[in-house]
Amino acid sequence: MMKRETMDKPDRSTRRRFLKLTAGAAVLGAAPRAKATPAMMAAAIRDVTGAAAVRTGKVRLDVPPLVENGNTVSMTVSVTSPMTAEDHVRSIHVFVEKNPQPNVGNFVLGPRAGRAQISTRIRLADTQKVVAIARLSDGSFWSASVDVVVTLAACTEEVI
Amino acid sequence: MAAALINVPKKAKRGDVIEIKTLMSHIMETGFRHTATGELVPRDIITSFTCRYNGEEIFRADLFPAISANPFIAFFTTATESGTFEFSWIGDRGFSETASASIIVE
What are the residues whose beta carbons fall under 8 Å from the beta carbon of B106, sequence distance 6 or more? Predict the structure, then answer.
C-alpha cells in the first residue's frame, strides 16, 4: 500500500501540472482578442477633426444606457441645427472605446436633409462609452457621449 | 435578390422634411470572429451606402464592422420635387445592391 501511494503521488502531480498547463494554454489561446483602447478612439477622432477643438453640446446621442444584447443596439444621433445653406451639419461620426475598431460609422448629410438626424443599429463588444461627433458647415465640431452597459457582448462569440 | 426594404412616403408637400428608412439584408461579418478551430473568419461587410434624389447625392454613409447585421439606416431629406430615390450599397467581396423608390411632391 505504502509503495503504491508513493508511486501514485508523482503521477498525480504531473497530471495536475498537465491540467494547469493546458488550462493556461487555453487561456492564452483565447487571450489575443482584438480590442481598441480609449487612446485608439482618440486617434480615430483626431483623424476626423484634425487639430480642431471638439466642444460638448448641440449633439444628442440616443442609445439605451443598459443593453442586454450588444449585437443590435438602436442608436439615434440628432444635432440642433437650422439646416440652411449657411448653417448646417456636414457630417456625423460615431466612435466607441472598446470594440475591436473605434470607428462605427460616418454619415454625410447636407443642407437638403432638413433635419440633422440619423438612426442605425450598432454592435457593442463591451460596456463602454459611445461618442457622436458632428461637423458643422462653419468647421466647428460638437460632440455627445453616453456610457452604455452591455450584458451580452457582440462579436466575441465563436462561429460554429 | 430582393434584399432591401425601403420606406419612403408616397406623397409629400413641397418643402416637407421626410424620413427615409432603409434596411439591407447582409451578414456584416466583422472579421474579428474565430471558428472553433481558431481560424479567423474573413471580414464581409457593407462599406458604403449612398442615396440619390433625382440624381443628386443627398446622403452617404461609411459603415464599419460595428454596424449590426442587416444594416438599418434612417435619415431625413427635404421633399423638393417628384422623382425617384436611388439607393446603393457597396461592400466586401464585390457586394453591390441597388434599390429605388418614387415620391410624388405636390
Answer: B11, B12, B13, B14
Q: Is A132 left (phi over 0), alpha (psi -120 to 50) or beta?
A: beta
The ipTM estimated for the assembled molecules is 0.94
Say how many C-beta atoms besides its own lie within 10 A of residue A61's C-beta. Answer: 19
Chain B residues whose beta carbon lies within 8 Å of the beta carbon of residue A157: 33
Domain that residue A23 falls in: 1-32
Measured between beta carbons, the chain A residues lying within 8 angstroms of B91 are none
CB contact under 8 A, A96 and B30: no
CB-CB under 8 Å, A100 with B53: no
Q: Is A78 within the bounds of a domain?
A: yes
> Does B27 lie at the interface with A, CB-CB under 8 angstroms?
no
Asked whether residue A66 is assigned to any structural domain, the reply reads yes
Residue A158 located in a structural domain: no
Q: What is the pTM of this model?
A: 0.84
Amino acid occupying residue B41: V
Structure confidence by residue, pLDDT tens digits, B45-82: 999 999 999 999 999 999 999 999 999 999 999 999 99
